[in-house]
Design goal:
The longest helix has 24 residues. A hairpin with a 5-residue loop joins strand 7 and strand 8. The relative contact order is 0.07. The strands form 5 sheets. The protein has a 5-stranded parallel beta sheet with strand order 2-3-6-1-9, sandwiched between helices. Helix 12 packs across helix 13, helix 15 crosses helix 17 and helix 23 crosses helix 25. It is extended and about 100 Å long. By secondary structure, it is an alpha/beta fold. The protein has 4 domains: 51 residues, no CATH class; 193 residues, P-loop containing nucleotide triphosphate hydrolases (Rossmann fold, 3-Layer(aba) Sandwich); 86 residues, Helicase, Ruva Protein, domain 3; 104 residues, no CATH class. 54% of the residues lie in helices and 9% in strands. The C terminus is likely disordered.
Length: 532
């Protein structure tokens, strides 16, 4: 008997039943209600799915470019200041790992004896752990995913899992499975999963502490993970669009896993071990008692990590334990001045791209920002917060300022609001005075008046300098005009502005007499034509 031809209706029905099997029973009734709409959408976009699938098949095959460890470190040096030991280890691991991948790809064989390295980065917050790994992924041109251990739970519980991070590599690589299987996953704050040195029940729980550590073990070596997950938004979206990724698996065999954490207090555990090994003292005759200051993270051993709370199986999979140094003020200054991608360089470039203006941070200003950041004890993260705080008001006004170049000096970063408002007050006065050309002919504003307006802006006594000047001139236009008939120039001083703020409801004649009395203080003039 001849088999009947399969129709689009048959294909959609199979797809629809597959959706029902994968989605919870509670939504089946809703799916049935939406059947016609889903079929219409699926049929409408079917040609686009076919075209996209065809384009993928015609794409260039994935290839790997291997750079020497020295060259990789050179590029890391451009973005990360200091941390030379960490950069050497990362560069070395990356070189040998990528060489292995290239050989496998070219020979189309699998070396079952190959054991990939896993790295643990230990350092205080803001020391550059994430920046190092993210920069390394860009140098190697592989996808990168960061997952916070504090948000992870054991599979089957609400929250992220290590399997979700592996799936994310697939979507980060635009669904290129080969490229995804060569990516990098950074598990940050791994120390928060350790409960050995803490009385935190959650850290010790099966769900979020040691249970998650257990789940890391297999992916760090080699496991096959289903790309489809009922809790993964990408999987649900692809399924609705007619994708077939639910039948695919991703191998973690060649995915680099890098763990990171601050491990606060681990020096005390190292000290405890040293005292036990060295008889509590060092030096001739055992006269010096060991203290935490004598401890270096370079001396960390697997036993210290297990004492801290990492399970032995996880510690056993860590090939390199690399401590990162705390960033002092001098290192933070070098980051601002020398590192590509530093927040100061980003701001200079972004301002030029957006406005065409050239803004430059002086070394003295960068030193001050670095010293402030060092006080925060949050490493490089504080640099971004301080730079945005210092520059925010200037960035708001900069497009309208008649400045082609400007140097951010030390006085500016120390007193950023007065310095910014000093730049904007005179241009706003000029703009507002254009509405009163006859009066403006007789009026100058002295430095005291400028400082008065700057202070009012700092204190937020006035919101719009342009409106303030406009209101001032509108209110006093007839008075100033009348005085101008009797004398050559009128000097607007801080005393006059203060008088205006106090006497806004006083009649014009009273203002006129008060203004006349105040003219004797106008002994010098800084005209609007002066430098901004």
């Amino acid at each position: 008997m001849r088999k009947s031809r399969i129709t689009y209706q048959d294909i959609f029905e199979q797809k629809f039943q597959e959706w029902k099997r994968m989605l919870p029973h509670e939504v089946h009734a809703y799916l049935e209600h939406m059947r016609e709409h889903l079929q219409a959408i699926d049929e409408k976009y079917a040609p686009l799915y076919a075209q996209a699938s065809s384009s993928k098949k015609q794409a260039d095959p994935y290839s790997i470019h291997v750079q020497s460890a020295y060259r990789i470190k050179e590029q890391l040096d451009n973005y990360v200041v200091g941390q030379h030991d960490a950069k050497k280890v990362l560069s070395q691991v990356a070189f040998y790992h990528m060489s292995h991948l290239k050989k496998e790809l070219e020979t189309n064989t699998i070396n079952e004896d190959y054991i990939k390295a896993s790295i643990l980065l230990i350092g205080p917050t803001g020391s550059g752990k994430t920046l190092l790994v993210n920069t390394l992924s860009r140098i190697l041109n592989v996808p990168f995913v960061k997952v916070d251990a504090t948000a992870m739970t054991k599979t089957g519980f609400v929250g992220d899992s290590i399997q979700d991070a592996v799936r994310e590599l697939y979507y980060m690589s635009e669904e290129d499975l080969s490229r995804a299987e060569h990516g990098i996953i950074l598990v940050d704050e791994i120390d928060k999963l350790a409960g050995g040195s803490r009385d935190d029940y959650i850290s010790n729980s099966v769900v979020t502490g040691k249970g998650v550590q257990q789940e890391l073990l297999r992916p760090m070596e080699n496991s096959m993970i289903d790309l489809f997950s009922q809790t993964n938004i990408h999987s649900i979206r692809s399924m609705i669009q007619g994708g077939e990724i639910e039948n695919k698996k991703i191998s973690t065999r060649n995915i680099l896993f890098i763990l990171a954490g601050a491990f606060e207090g681990i020096e005390e555990l190292i000290l405890k071990r040293h005292r036990k090994e060295d008889g509590h003292a060092i030096g001739f005759g055992g006269k010096k008692l060991l203290t935490v200051q004598d401890v270096s993270l370079d001396a960390i051993q697997p036993a210290d990590l297990m004492e801290y709370g990492l399970i032995p199986e996880l510690v056993g999979r860590i090939t390199y334990t690399v401590p990162l140094e705390r960033l002092d003020a001098e290192k933070l200054f070098q980051i601002l001045r020398d590192a590509q991608g530093s927040i100061s360089r980003q701001m200079e470039q972004d301002i030029h791209d957006a406005t065409g203006k050239k803004i430059h941070f002086s070394d003295e200003a960068l030193h001050w920002i670095a010293q402030e950041a060092a006080r925060f004890q949050t490493g490089g993260r504080a640099l971004t917060e301080i730079c945005h705080r210092v520059m925010n008001e200037l960035l708001f006004h900069l497009p309208s300022l008649d400045l082609e170049t400007y140097t951010i000096h030390e006085d500016f970063v120390k007193n950023y609001l007065p310095e910014t408002y000093s730049l904007i007050v005179r241009p706003h006065i000029q703009q507002a005075m254009r509405q009163f050309p006859i009066v403006a002919k007789y009026v100058d504003w002295d430095k005291g008046a400028i400082d008065y307006l700057v202070q009012k802006l700092v204190d937020r006594s006035i919101v719009s300098i342009h409106k303030y000047i406009e209101d001032f001139m509108t209110s006093w236009n007839p008075i100033i005009h009348k005085i101008a008939l009797e004398q050559d120039r009128i000097i607007i001083t801080d005393e006059i502005l203060s008088l205006y703020d106090q006497q806004t409801d006083t009649g014009n004649e009273d203002l006129f007499s008060l203004l006349k009395k105040k003219q004797d203080v106008a002994q010098y003039t800084i005209t609007l034509q002066g430098n901004v």
